[in-house]
Design goal:
The protein contains 18 helices and 17 strands. The chain is of the alpha/beta class and about 500 residues long. It has a 5-stranded parallel sheet with strand order 2-1-3-4-5, sandwiched between helices. Helix 5 (about 85-95) packs parallel to helix 6 and helix 15 packs antiparallel against helix 16. The longest helix is centred in the middle third of the chain and has 31 residues, at about 160-190.
Length: about 500
């Protein structure tokens, strides 16, 4: 039997015994009190009252640890239940469970998340429940598939607690406001009275709200829209929402939007818009058709929240994850992504490219003698010199302490690569003025050419590294083009 008190979150239908064997609870008093067999009637009543006032969330996942992680994130603020398979979730909903939001795993046996989502969207009773996919897939095709299936958003695994809370809170808020607005618009349509559209709820909503006719002409915007965009009510009414068009949105975004609306379904996504001043900003938009009592679409309504700061934070995190903190150059992971893309393009176009491995000679004595702060400044200046000695189309990155790499594309001959490498070496060995002292270093550079010396990033990297070590063995401050007859193995000096 499941622990007492769990029935409130739908546990009568859960495979508790099997799930319990998978989970190890190191439970705080809150969970013990809630699930424990000695829960008092008074506490149970309090929990039921709390449930009635709290948004309900259903987690659907076949992995117990995934459920436990999400429960730990969401239970303090929401009434959370869970199902251990797609079929299990559909059974719960068929029996009357009506969560405000569903967190749905993609990869499940028997019935995956896309199939579950399709079934829910095909049922008028569950069609409006927003579904956020929780997936380990990060490719654009999987994300598009999730949105096309009817999901409103997706969260990547492993989940980040702040991202989960932010997405859940955002979509619950969008859902709440959209429901309020739809109720108001149904009343307006029944009375055919445009004045009732301008309710106090819309006027004072912090969300930007736009109402258009079937032809897309704006009929109303709320004060939040005016404040957000800089367009007054008079300037906006009678025009098309394209007045905010930035030219920065993917055409596929617009296709998805109109396909959803033409099917009479709401669309949720991100839009990059332009204010009257020309300033660019990002919005999370929930755009839905509004139907009359006969089920005919009469208007479209957009509820939009500014997410510019959130996007900037995401972009900053991405930058920090892909760039070297000291030199601001691409790190190893990002550089080799660039290399793989460049190799694919070079194969298609039958062109050459070069990979350079660069080791700064005599850096360690400078670092040891003058200190790490001076050593860091030396690395920064050397990085800037290397970057400025290359074309805009080329890339330089930092992969280790005093080790750098460079990617040269569109080469006519291997000799072109040698000339660029020598230019880079010459830039590095110019004197540096650091801490009131003149410091000199040099660079040993190894060069490997595609397709002459290898067809993959792994092979090119090994050969460029071998050539670099030969340059060091030959006295440093030199450029060596890979030659299998001269470089049998990688050295260690």
């Amino acid at each position: 039997m499941p622990p007492a008190g769990l029935d409130r979150v739908g546990s009568a239908h859960l495979e508790w015994d099997a799930l319990k064997r998978k989970m190890t609870y190191q439970a705080p008093d809150r969970r013990v009190g809630r699930f424990g067999p000695t829960m008092t009637m008074a506490r149970s009543a309090i929990e039921v009252m709390r449930s009635a006032q709290t948004a309900k969330i259903l987690i659907v996942d076949d992995v117990a640890t995934n459920i436990e992680v999400l429960l730990g994130i969401l239970e303090p603020d929401y009434d959370v239940s869970f199902a251990t398979s797609g079929r299990h979730a559909l059974d719960l909903l068929a029996k009357g469970a009506r969560p405000d939001l569903i967190l749905l795993d993609v990869m499940m046996p028997e019935m995956d998340g896309y199939a579950v989502c399709a079934a829910l969207k095909a049922d008028s009773r569950t069609r409006a429940i927003p579904i956020i996919f929780v997936t380990g897939k990060t490719d654009a095709e999987s994300e598009t598939q999730a949105l096309d299936a009817g999901g409103v958003d997706f969260i990547h695994k492993p989940v980040n607690s702040q991202v989960v809370r932010s997405r859940v809170r955002l979509h619950l808020e969008l859902q709440r406001r959209t429901r309020e607005l739809e109720r108001s618009l149904i009343e307006v349509a029944a009375a055919n009275d445009r004045l009732r559209v301008l309710t106090q709820a819309i006027q004072h909503s912090p969300a930007s709200i736009v109402i258009t006719g079937l032809d897309g002409t704006i009929q109303y915007v709320n004060p939040a829209f005016v404040e957000e965009t800089g367009y007054s009510l008079v300037e906006a009414v009678g025009r098309n929402p394209r007045l905010l068009k930035s030219g920065l949105n993917d055409p596929a975004t617009y296709r998805s939007l109109w396909e959803h609306l033409q099917r009479g379904e709401p669309w949720v996504g991100e839009l990059i818009n332009r204010r009257k001043t020309g300033e660019i900003y990002s919005e999370e938009a929930h755009i839905a058709p509004v139907k009359d009592v006969h089920g005919e679409v009469t208007h479209y309504v957009a509820v939009k929240l500014n997410i510019t700061e959130r996007k900037r934070s995401q972009e900053r995190l991405t930058y920090l994850a892909t760039h070297d903190a000291l030199t601001k150059l691409p790190n190893r992971a990002l550089f080799f992504e660039h290399l793989d893309r460049a190799l694919a393009l070079a194969r298609r176009n039958r062109t050459r490219l070069a990979l350079l491995f660069i080791d700064l000679d005599h850096f360690k004595p400078v670092n040891d003698t003058l200190g790490h702060a001076v050593g860091d400044r030396l690395l920064q200046q050397a990085a800037r010199r290397m970057a400025s000695s290359l074309r805009d189309a080329d890339t330089v990155g930092r992969i280790g302490g005093d080790e750098f790499v460079a990617l040269l594309t569109g080469l006519d001959t291997p000799e072109n690569a040698r000339l660029v490498a020598e230019k880079l070496r010459d830039a590095v060995r110019r004197p540096y003025d650091l801490a009131g002292q003149t410091v000199r270093i040099s660079a040993s550079v190894g060069v490997a050419i595609f397709p002459d010396h290898g067809d993959s990033s792994l092979v090119l990297a090994r050969h460029a590294d071998d050539a670099m070590y030969l340059a060091k063995q030959q006295g440093r401050d030199g450029v060596v083009l890979f030659d299998p007859t001269l470089i049998p193995t990688t050295g260690t000096g």
